[in-house]
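QUALITY CONTROL LOG
STEP: pairwise intake check
CHECKER ROLE: data steward
CRITERIA: each record must contain a sequence immediately followed by its structure tokens, with no blank fields

ENTRY 1 OF 2
RESULT FIELD BELOW
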Amino acid sequence: MKYLNHNIYLTLLLSFLFVGCDKADEILDIEPDTPAYGYILFNADKPTRGALVDDMNRPFGVMGYYWKYNNQNDIWTTVRVLETPDVFHTQKITYDDDSQLHTYDLEPSTNGTQLKPWEFGYKYTFFGYYPHETESQGTLSVSADNVQGTPYITYTLPTDVAKMQDVMTAAVYDTDYRSTREVAFTFKHRLTAVDVQMVNMNAPLENGTEVYVKVTDLKVNLVNQGYDKVVIPMDDTMPLERTEAANMNKNYTIVPSVTLAPSNGESSAIVASGNPLIIIPQEKISGSYLYGTVSLSIQYVDKNGNPITVADAEVTNGAVDPISFNVERDLLPGRRYVLQLTFTRDALTLQVIPPGEWVDNRVDVEFD
């Protein structure tokens, strides 16, 4: 059994217990005949803050490998071509609120918690992945238990923004029961996030009435060429294997309805979409980039939601003509991009603002 410790990014701790460890026996209901080298365990301390996943108090999966260690050449990079996941294959790890530990059970149908013991004279390599396939709403699958070498995830871009997954992986190589009581397992984001934010910059009317903007049916349509399927090795140093969509055409409803208060210059008035797009990292394909459009409808209202007339508005009530965009640079894995819609009575503009929660970077995006 494994438990997990989280810091700024997810830290997975593989610990071990010795015979007579009463605290662990009490928490896990382990039989008194604990193996001489202990069980593989996780230990959770406090939740982490992630870019999209707020904490790891949720199910994730583990793949585990071991092999006989005879000399210093017996390391993962030399033995992996022959190794299959014989310690763990898609082992589901769940969080227990009472003990604040991440737990697993090798045989859930049996009485008591079934744990995996450490073996003397063996080296281990572990891979973690999120989400577990049973929690992925059908978007994710994991390599079979007879696949040799580095395991992988196959992820298909869904047509519903609510089913998009913040896919993450982690790895711990060449460890054993003596290496350390805490083996760090740091998860990394493997996909690309695109947030849609909105801000209402309308000034009050001449009579002092503040102008609110009601936005409905805000959609992002990804069109033309792009990637809609990807194979993600759980070793993050290995390249992604992406499948190009011959004719990308995915339409995502980002905001069904929201009313924007006037910002009055305050950044706190910026409204996030709530459902960010999590897409497969994109790059230039056959002379084309990722294209798309943003469509929506608006209505001017007062603070009570009553329709008002903005006589001098260039942007009028009703459906707005779709705004096209063309991403002129690669959208990189593990980075978060932000598209911001700014509303004034003279124009509706769409621009990129620097991302903050993932890796700091800027991306040039042109809008027609």
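ENTRY 2 OF 2
RESULT FIELD BELOW
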Amino acid sequence: MSIKGDDIIIIGFPYTNRKDTGRGIDRYLAVLLEACTDHGIRPVLIEQGLVRPRFFNFLKNMELAFIKILKTKGRLYHAIDPLGSIMAFLCMKKNIVTTIHDTIPLDGKVSMFSWPWFISMKLVMRISLIISDVLVVPFASTKETLVNRFDVPEARVRIVRYGIDLNIKEPKKDSWQSVSEDKALRLLFMGGGSPIDRGLEMVLNIFDRFSERVPNVSLTIVSKAGTFQKLNERVISYVKNGRAEILEFIPENEIQGFISKFFAFLYPSSLGFSYLVMQAMSAGVPVIASNTRDMRDYLENAGILCDQYDLECYTKALIELLRGDVREKVIRNQYSRLMEFSTDVFFDGIRNVYMDLISNSTNARRDV
């Protein structure tokens, strides 16, 4: 069975088809559309657009998206966010596929969300789990959570790994030379729009402990400008005495080169998967991260995993990375793992979901 472009309606709302916004789901949408186009399929796209609207503008944009969905006659509707699946359902569309990127709204509140927003996200996701014909998840642990904790039928959940569209080069040998303890080392933490949930406080503790062993070490924190008020006095004191720096934004075309200059990338996050980690891995920098949520699915036997609050584990890992043989093993393993997340494998998984659902729907109509 062949799939034509207008068979597939991709509901990107409330996200946009861009890679440089810093939002992972924006990038997911862009990679999905690129992969489809590269394989001769041009889906119909309904997206938010570049404007990040206030509440009433958001409602207006949602109304416009509803109108666009109503006018379409696709054979399948793929929502890259649970909200899109509800919009398709209310428009009485059939064959709804929804990508569930994580289960954070179902698990509990994190500081990046206000209570009203968090409750609405949780309700939207709960409804989406019921009305979607197929749920696409990136990792086995996400599927396990949906099946075991939320009673979603296993047959309705399909695992399709993310596609990584980075320029991934085989690591150079000089990237895993042994490092002297008296050499100036730089640690990197990228907090994005939620530095607290991504482990800022733990990063500071790790930095303090490691600097007791390696005095000539500095910390770089990259965080969006709107989150600077969350960076506590402890961070400010480090900046004043030259031990740390705070950066607001790294352009997309410069980020891999920027990351490649660091000794290690720290990510003791409570949020699980982040595209930031993949960018660090592709830059040939060892990643030390927490083993929370789906982190094990893509970092186990690749980067270094620690319990989220195990300070000794993080410190020991940094000290071990001073050895060339340890750095070589970690960097090589990270490179090998990235190869498993190609955009071709991603597209094959998505196409199989599309074809199976359309085929089953066609056969059901014939039976009737």
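INTAKE CHECK: passed for both entries
DESCRIPTIVE NOTE, ENTRY 2: The chain has a mean pLDDT of 87.
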